Protein backbone atom coordinates (compact mmCIF):
# COMPACT_ATOMS: atom_id res chain seq x y z
CA UNK A 1 0.00 0.00 0.00
CA UNK A 2 1.30 3.45 -0.89
CA UNK A 3 2.41 5.53 2.04
CA UNK A 4 2.42 8.69 -0.09
CA UNK A 5 -0.82 8.14 -1.98
CA UNK A 6 -3.10 7.55 1.00
CA UNK A 7 -2.71 11.12 2.32
CA UNK A 8 -4.87 13.76 0.63
CA UNK A 9 -3.34 16.92 -0.89
CA UNK A 10 -4.40 19.98 1.11
CA UNK A 11 -5.29 22.90 -1.16
CA UNK A 12 -4.22 26.27 0.36
CA UNK A 13 -6.25 29.48 0.14
CA UNK A 14 -5.93 31.22 -3.22
CA UNK A 15 -5.57 27.99 -5.17
CA UNK A 16 -8.39 26.24 -7.03
CA UNK A 17 -8.16 22.65 -8.18
CA UNK A 18 -10.68 21.25 -10.67
CA UNK A 19 -11.14 18.02 -12.60
CA UNK A 20 -12.05 18.22 -16.30
CA UNK A 21 -12.14 15.09 -18.51
CA UNK A 22 -9.41 13.09 -16.69
CA UNK A 23 -7.26 16.24 -16.38
CA UNK A 24 -6.48 17.93 -13.06
CA UNK A 25 -6.15 21.72 -13.36
CA UNK A 26 -4.57 23.83 -10.59
CA UNK A 27 -4.90 27.62 -10.76
CA UNK A 28 -3.18 30.08 -8.45
CA UNK A 29 -1.46 33.43 -8.29
CA UNK A 30 1.57 32.11 -10.22
CA UNK A 31 -0.34 30.56 -13.12
CA UNK A 32 -2.11 27.41 -14.18
CA UNK A 33 -0.81 23.84 -14.41
CA UNK A 34 -2.46 20.73 -15.86
CA UNK A 35 -1.92 17.02 -15.30
CA UNK A 36 -3.44 14.31 -17.53
CA UNK A 37 -4.52 11.32 -15.45
CA UNK A 38 -3.89 7.70 -16.38
CA UNK A 39 -6.58 5.02 -16.38
CA UNK A 40 -5.09 3.42 -13.27
CA UNK A 41 -6.10 6.09 -10.72
CA UNK A 42 -9.19 8.03 -9.68
CA UNK A 43 -9.11 11.57 -8.29
CA UNK A 44 -11.78 13.04 -6.02
CA UNK A 45 -11.96 16.70 -5.00
CA UNK A 46 -13.81 17.51 -1.78
CA UNK A 47 -13.68 20.60 0.45
CA UNK A 48 -10.06 21.78 0.35
CA UNK A 49 -8.53 18.38 -0.32
CA UNK A 50 -7.68 16.26 -3.34
CA UNK A 51 -7.76 12.49 -2.76
CA UNK A 52 -6.17 9.97 -5.12
CA UNK A 53 -7.20 6.29 -5.17
CA UNK A 54 -6.03 3.34 -7.28
CA UNK A 55 -8.60 1.74 -9.62
CA UNK A 56 -7.36 -1.80 -9.06
CA UNK A 57 -4.91 -3.75 -6.98
CA UNK A 58 -2.41 -4.48 -9.75
CA UNK A 59 1.18 -3.31 -9.55
CA UNK A 60 0.78 -0.50 -12.10
CA UNK A 61 -2.17 1.05 -10.23
CA UNK A 62 -0.34 0.96 -6.90
CA UNK A 63 2.76 2.49 -8.50
CA UNK A 64 0.87 5.34 -10.16
CA UNK A 65 -1.20 6.03 -7.02
CA UNK A 66 1.67 7.63 -5.07
CA UNK A 67 3.18 9.19 -8.18
CA UNK A 68 -0.07 10.93 -9.14
CA UNK A 69 -0.56 12.23 -5.61
CA UNK A 70 3.01 13.62 -5.57
CA UNK A 71 2.54 15.30 -8.98
CA UNK A 72 -0.72 16.94 -7.85
CA UNK A 73 0.97 18.17 -4.66
CA UNK A 74 3.84 19.58 -6.74
CA UNK A 75 1.33 21.44 -8.94
CA UNK A 76 -0.49 22.93 -5.94
CA UNK A 77 2.75 24.12 -4.34
CA UNK A 78 3.98 25.45 -7.70
CA UNK A 79 0.96 27.68 -8.40
CA UNK A 80 0.86 28.97 -4.81
CA UNK A 81 4.53 29.55 -3.83
CA UNK A 82 6.57 28.47 -6.87
CA UNK A 83 9.98 26.83 -7.17
CA UNK A 84 13.47 28.25 -7.56
CA UNK A 85 17.02 27.05 -8.13
CA UNK A 86 20.06 29.20 -7.40
CA UNK A 87 23.36 28.71 -9.18
CA UNK A 88 26.82 30.12 -8.61
CA UNK A 89 29.39 30.81 -11.32
CA UNK A 90 33.05 30.45 -10.32
CA UNK A 91 36.05 31.28 -12.49
CA UNK A 92 38.10 34.20 -13.75
CA UNK A 93 36.02 36.17 -16.25
CA UNK A 94 32.99 33.89 -15.87
CA UNK A 95 29.77 35.88 -15.62
CA UNK A 96 26.10 35.96 -16.54
CA UNK A 97 23.62 38.69 -17.50
CA UNK A 98 19.98 38.82 -18.51
CA UNK A 99 18.95 40.83 -21.60
CA UNK A 100 15.25 40.64 -22.36
CA UNK A 101 14.31 36.97 -22.77
CA UNK A 102 17.94 35.82 -23.08
CA UNK A 103 20.54 34.75 -20.55
CA UNK A 104 24.03 35.63 -21.75
CA UNK A 105 26.81 33.50 -20.27
CA UNK A 106 30.57 34.05 -20.50
CA UNK A 107 32.09 30.75 -19.39
CA UNK A 108 35.64 30.80 -20.71
CA UNK A 109 34.83 29.86 -24.29
CA UNK A 110 35.84 31.99 -27.27
CA UNK A 111 32.19 33.02 -27.65
CA UNK A 112 29.36 33.98 -25.34
CA UNK A 113 26.48 31.56 -24.84
CA UNK A 114 22.96 32.91 -25.42
CA UNK A 115 20.25 30.88 -23.69
CA UNK A 116 16.62 31.56 -24.67
CA UNK A 117 14.47 31.64 -21.51
CA UNK A 118 11.34 29.45 -21.93
CA UNK A 119 7.79 30.68 -21.22
CA UNK A 120 6.81 30.58 -17.55
CA UNK A 121 10.40 30.84 -16.31
CA UNK A 122 11.99 33.93 -14.78
CA UNK A 123 15.79 34.22 -14.58
CA UNK A 124 17.46 36.90 -12.49
CA UNK A 125 21.11 37.80 -11.85
CA UNK A 126 21.59 39.75 -8.61
CA UNK A 127 25.37 39.62 -9.14
CA UNK A 128 27.21 38.63 -12.33
CA UNK A 129 28.14 35.35 -10.61
CA UNK A 130 24.71 34.41 -9.19
CA UNK A 131 21.85 33.11 -11.35
CA UNK A 132 18.37 32.37 -9.98
CA UNK A 133 15.81 30.36 -11.97
CA UNK A 134 12.18 30.69 -10.81
CA UNK A 135 8.86 29.29 -12.03
CA UNK A 136 5.70 27.43 -11.10
CA UNK A 137 6.51 24.08 -12.78
CA UNK A 138 9.11 22.18 -10.76
CA UNK A 139 10.17 19.98 -13.68
CA UNK A 140 10.77 22.91 -16.04
CA UNK A 141 12.70 24.89 -13.40
CA UNK A 142 14.98 21.89 -12.80
CA UNK A 143 15.42 21.28 -16.52
CA UNK A 144 16.37 24.90 -17.25
CA UNK A 145 18.85 24.92 -14.35
CA UNK A 146 20.38 21.65 -15.57
CA UNK A 147 20.76 23.00 -19.12
CA UNK A 148 22.53 26.13 -17.83
CA UNK A 149 24.79 24.03 -15.62
CA UNK A 150 25.50 21.75 -18.58
CA UNK A 151 27.30 24.48 -20.52
CA UNK A 152 30.24 24.30 -18.09
CA UNK A 153 29.85 22.00 -15.11
CA UNK A 154 32.11 22.43 -12.09
CA UNK A 155 35.50 20.79 -12.40
CA UNK A 156 37.17 19.14 -9.37
CA UNK A 157 40.63 20.75 -9.47
CA UNK A 158 39.97 24.51 -9.28
CA UNK A 159 36.18 24.42 -8.85
CA UNK A 160 35.58 26.52 -11.96
CA UNK A 161 32.20 26.33 -13.68
CA UNK A 162 28.49 26.59 -12.91
CA UNK A 163 27.21 24.83 -9.79
CA UNK A 164 24.09 24.89 -7.65
CA UNK A 165 24.55 26.98 -4.48
CA UNK A 166 23.73 24.01 -2.23
CA UNK A 167 25.97 21.62 -4.20
CA UNK A 168 29.26 20.43 -2.71
CA UNK A 169 32.09 19.78 -5.16
CA UNK A 170 34.65 17.23 -4.06
CA UNK A 171 38.02 18.77 -4.75
CA UNK A 172 40.99 16.77 -6.01
CA UNK A 173 44.62 17.40 -5.37
CA UNK A 174 46.61 18.47 -8.42
CA UNK A 175 49.86 17.04 -9.81
CA UNK A 176 52.86 16.93 -7.51
CA UNK A 177 56.47 17.47 -8.47
TrEMBL record:
Q: Does the keyword Ribonucleoprotein apply?
A: yes
BP GO terms, sorted = cytoplasmic translation
A single GO molecular-function term is: structural constituent of ribosome
Q: Which NCBIfam families match?
A: L6_bact
- Could you tell me what this protein does? This protein binds to the 23S rRNA, and is important in its secondary structure. It is located near the subunit interface in the base of the L7/L12 stalk, and near the tRNA binding site of the peptidyltransferase center.
List the SUPFAM superfamilies. Ribosomal protein L6
Source taxonomy = Bacteria, Pseudomonadati, Pseudomonadota, Alphaproteobacteria, Acetobacterales
Q: What is this protein called?
A: Large ribosomal subunit protein uL6
Under the heading HAMAP family, the entry gives: Ribosomal_uL6_B (MF_01365_B)
Asked if the keyword Secreted belongs to this entry, the reply reads no
Q: What GO terms fall under cellular component here?
A: cytosolic large ribosomal subunit
Where is each Large ribosomal subunit protein uL6 alpha-beta domain found?
A: 11-82, 91-164
Share what the entry says about its subunit structure, partners included: Part of the 50S ribosomal subunit.
Keywords, alphabetical: Ribonucleoprotein, Ribosomal protein, RNA-binding, rRNA-binding
Q: Could you say which protein family the record assigns here?
A: Belongs to the universal ribosomal protein uL6 family.
Amino acid sequence: MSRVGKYPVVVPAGVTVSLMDRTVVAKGKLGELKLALTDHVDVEIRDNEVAVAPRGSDRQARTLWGTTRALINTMVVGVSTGYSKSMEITGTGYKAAVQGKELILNLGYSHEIRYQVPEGIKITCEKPTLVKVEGSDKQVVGQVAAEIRGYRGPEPYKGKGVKYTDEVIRRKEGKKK
